[in-house]
Amino acid sequence: MTAVRCTMAQALVRYLCNQFTIVDDERAPLFPGVFAIFGHGNVTCLSEALEAVQDTLPTWRGQNEQSMAMAAIGFAKAKRRRQIMVATSSIGPGALNMVTAAGLAHANRLPVLLLAGDTFVNRRPDPVMQQVEHFGNPSINVNDSFKAVTRYWDRIVHPEQLISSLPQAVATMLDPGDCGPAFVALPQDVQEMAWDYPEAFFAETVHKIPRARPDRDQLGEAVRLLKAASRPLIISGGGVRYSGAEQELAALAAEHGIPLCETIAGKGGVVHDHPAHVGPIGILGSTSANAMAAEADVIVAIGTRLMDFVTGSWTCFAEDAKFISINAARWDATKHRALAVVGDARETVEELAIALEGWKVDADWTKRGRDEFAKWNTLLDGYQKLTNDSVPTYAQVVGVVNKHVGERDLLIAAAGGLPGEVVKNWRVKTPNTFDCEFGFSCMGYEISAGWGAAMADETRTPIVMIGDGTYMMMNSDIYASVLSGHKFILIVCDNGGYAVINRLQNAKGGASFNNLLKDCRVKEPFPVDFVKHAESMGALARHVESLGDLGEALEWAKTTDRTTVLSIVSDAFVWTPGDAWWDVGVPDVSARESVREAAAAQKEGRKKQRVGV
């Protein structure tokens, strides 16, 4: 058997270079690039291997290990899990910086390959710089932290182990039912070791994402249950988009008259004006979808993990409502007494459409969905209406941005107050142009994801919307995007701190405390000059004083040659209404009467929760 003698690090990189996938019917690299910050643990061996193949596997330098791993996740979302970016770090704090990003990818079922330097297997130099020692277990170091937030975890303690480890990591990241981040720790002394690797290990391999078809009996039972329904409702989740089932589901809902609502991750699977669309559901959802959910007798949940913001902490539905859960992941399919149909969303929807041929929902129920959605759109029009008020609301800002961006441009948001406002107010013009990361609700994702998404598709512009609090938490990838030439447009809504958490604090009877800057222990809550800050990193920037100025500035931003930042002061207290309930902990005992009242109301709300057994 022909062998190739190389170091473990060189073998790893060579393997990555020879993995391919199919994107839009064309062969493409499975790993199109690496985000790297080099330090001890990855600078001598791994960087040497990456430098040699930089024209095949380009390496991009980030500014923070967490943010560059988030850029890799934004790339994966934009590619709908078809391609996977790599993020590498040194040992110690560099590795730990990526743990938050790993949690984000894990919660959202997204693939990213994380490679971290590691201490010496031979332990001769121990303790090395940045090594965290565990007196009772010397084999543990900071990289073990990734075990809680990755789908696949390994530490390579012998060069030959790559042969079995890397294919398993790839298989995990490409498995629709088990998709998530893979982590491989690379001890410094093992990276340098040479080994005679079988040449076959480096053979070009084209991977195809498997599509599991549903069990016939499960599907048959789902068809019987659906045909017996009087008021069915479809919940379209992120799995619909990752499966590429958007057209099939849109056709199914329209053909059979089944009202269709979307989760946060699923938003953008259909356009806003699709005839069966009734809006987003849940706590960040619409009055229309929540009204339909409250009366639905059969809910078809497709590609969703049904988190509390979608279900209103399981109060959005009637207690006797029946669930059909179509999901590639068995774990997600079997939640809350659902009839589990385990299978790929596109394949299952196609088979469901065949089985339902000739059947339609009662026309009154279909019309009810359209009427409720029409009322919701009228409400949005009112909240987005331009006024002469000195401080615009989030809804007004979102409405202006929505109007001015291109039909294919990608909206990106994550934590804070903007997710609720964009999920409610953003009217999707083209499928798959909406990314609101709320599975982990991770502050800092937005700007990094803008960089990654711009890298993933240079034919459209990512539109990143964040609050001032998130901007201050992680903004260095503005600089990274300018350096690499990957443009996005960033709109910073400055409402003076963490306004949405202040809202929750007040809603549960608490005093405003440590959220808005004016309520923090500060000498003076002076505003940040976001324009000067962005310009200092090489971006173009403008501050706008009014909604009219915002529209004009957006038109200018579309013409620029680099990342462009627009800032606008926004209201911290006016929000688009929602009517779903959320379960949070409220103190049983408090000196504040308002807290005691909120606690009593919370206990009353829990009586409406669906029991998940």
UniProtKB/TrEMBL annotation:
Residues 35-130 form the Thiamine pyrophosphate enzyme N-terminal TPP-binding domain. One of its GO terms (cellular component) is acetolactate synthase complex. It comes from the Bacteria. Gene3D superfamilies: 3.40.50.970, TPP-binding domain. One of its GO terms (molecular function) is acetolactate synthase activity. Transmembrane segments: none annotated. Residues 221-352 form the Thiamine pyrophosphate enzyme central domain. SUPFAM superfamilies: DHS-like NAD/FAD-binding domain, Thiamin diphosphate-binding fold (THDP-binding). InterPro entries: DHS-like_NAD/FAD-binding_dom, Myo_inos_IolD, THDP-binding, Thiamin_PyroP_enz_cen_dom, Thiamin_PyroP_enz_TPP-bd_dom, TPP_enz, TPP_enzyme_TPP-bd. GO terms for biological process: inositol catabolic process; isoleucine biosynthetic process; L-valine biosynthetic process. Residues 420-567 form the Thiamine pyrophosphate enzyme TPP-binding domain. Keywords: Hydrolase, Thiamine pyrophosphate. Belongs to the TPP enzyme family. PANTHER family: 3D-(3,5_4)-TRIHYDROXYCYCLOHEXANE-1,2-DIONE HYDROLASE, THIAMINE PYROPHOSPHATE ENZYMES. This is 3D-(3,5/4)-trihydroxycyclohexane-1,2-dione hydrolase IolD. It comes from Acidocella aminolytica 101 = DSM 11237.
